[in-house]
Amino acid sequence: MSSPVPGTIHAERLARLRAELKARGLDGFVVPISDEHMSEYVGEYAQRMAWLTGFGGSAGTAAVLPEKAAVFVDGRYTVQVRDQVDGTLFDYVGVPQSSVAEWLGANVSAGQKVGYDPWLHSIDWARGLEKALAAKGATLVAVDANPLDAAWDDQPAPSDAVVTVYDTKLAGQAAADKRAVIADWLRAKGLDTTVMTALDSVAWTFNIRGTDVSHTPVGLAFALLHADATADLFVAPEKVTDAVRAHLGNSVRIHDREAFEAALADLAGKKVAVDPDRAVAAIFTALEAAGATIERHRDPAVLPKAIKNDVELDGTRAAHVRDGVAVSRFLKWMAEVAPQGGLDELGAAAKLREYREASGALRDLSFDTISAAGPNGALPHYKVDETTNRAVETGTLYLVDSGGQYDDGTTDITRTIAIGTPTAEMRRRFTQVLKGHIALATARFPKGTRGSQLDILARQYLWADGVDYAHGTGHGVGTYLAVHEGPQRIAKPAGGQAGTEEALHAGMILSNEPGYYKAGSFGIRIENLVIVVPVRIDGAEEDMLAFETITFAPIARDLVDAALLSPAEADWLDAYHAEVLEKLGAAMDGADREWLAAACAPIDRAPTALAA
């Protein structure tokens, strides 16, 4: 039997969806990568765009009309989308340069009806698209049932894995106390109830965890929290054990997840807080129909979840030491094996996971490992698979961005190493990235400072050469929760971008990850996680903050051009490596520890160090 022509399966699926739309009286439909909780990562049952188009990234949208279709992705996926999606079936549209609303506005005809699933989109997105279509005489229609699900005949069911109790000894605060704080917030604002839809917020608030979404330890659930400190938790009954029921107690009423929409109707006459960035359009529509008064507020769990307590911080520090041992053993293995040839990206990623699993504490990876050799490293969010898998070759750079989920913390680390002898250009760019990393790691800043005010520290040395990187410098990180956690981040100012203008608070965890990417050649990124901590400065007139680095693994010394480091920067690197050896050395012995000691040795200082 001959192999199918590339794109044939997706042509059939696209035709099947169009037939389903026609049967329902619709002319078009919008297919996002999303679920009912507006999650960044979604379960297999919600991978609708991947099924329709073949696109395997974590962010994107497809739009389908009778004669045309398009996929919308940002700059992270410009290359990937062309590798995975048939350009004869779908136009490639870049965002934010364009948008679904602009493309549909340019391609719909008067009288056409475009459908959308109100359980997969935000209310503001829906209202914006409704306005754009109305300007062309077309109509946006909220569907009662997703037509793509009807076309997807082997669609997986949502996970039925049980949720588990997250021990207060790890959480550092009892679930009842968290609910009491939220109840106080509701009463202070004169509100009756808040709708909680973000899966990590539900997990954090109720001190529960799950395995319903790859790499993020959450269970599929909605919640209503009330001003009397009681709550209604909506979760499939087969997922709730007696231990979870006992943990939640009598103040938490448990209902089937399918009962959530109907429960919104019971809020008639109530003042209800809803987060428009995290709650889908269907929730707003149901509350409006019920006669509830809706007030827009950020999910009240978001900020307290981001500001870790001492127990969470101690746990994540321990997780990072454990993880650092695994990463260091992997780096030693790479130094020995990669120059011999025969290694590829998938093999390297599998070996790194093996070292993490050897600790006996790994619950999951915190995201799909970015294992990128040579030119693939120039794709900041590259995802290796059988079709893109590349050999790790001598004379190239290898970039690995990875992390683990442990009961006591979530890790995220990037290291870039040279396979063989690096070029002068590679060393210069690596050292500029390192200088930016050090500048951010050593920053001191007044309380109230926002991440956008610090971002330039990491870019300044690259900017001096007229180069830059397109991604943010730092994102928030959870504690045995989401590896990308708001609201804090470090990035260029971007009007309205969530988290960019959030003040940094002591107890927040962020990444410090400047990079450089030369298209078609190589990529460089150095990433450690940091905790925002108070710092005492003699004579200070402001309350000051700083960063404590908590990621420990060697930084490639052979990629450092010492002539480009100032004495203070060289001191930082030597001190960092001394701490790496101190923290990891006790868990490593024999040849592993010998390698670590050599990798952490002081750098050879240039005769005249320059602060270039």
Automatic annotation (TrEMBL):
The keyword Metal-binding applies. Residues 13-144 form the Creatinase N-terminal domain. Residues 544-603 form the Peptidase M24 C-terminal domain. The keyword Iron does not apply. InterPro entries: Creatin/AminoP/Spt16_N, Creatinase/aminopeptidase-like, Creatinase_N, Pept_M24, Pept_M24B, Peptidase_M24_C, X-Pro_aminopeptidase_P. GO terms for cellular component: cytoplasm. SUPFAM superfamilies: Creatinase/aminopeptidase, Creatinase/prolidase N-terminal domain. Gene3D superfamilies: Creatinase/methionine aminopeptidase superfamily, Creatinase/prolidase N-terminal domain. Residues 316-532 form the Peptidase M24 domain. Belongs to the peptidase M24B family. This is X-Pro aminopeptidase.
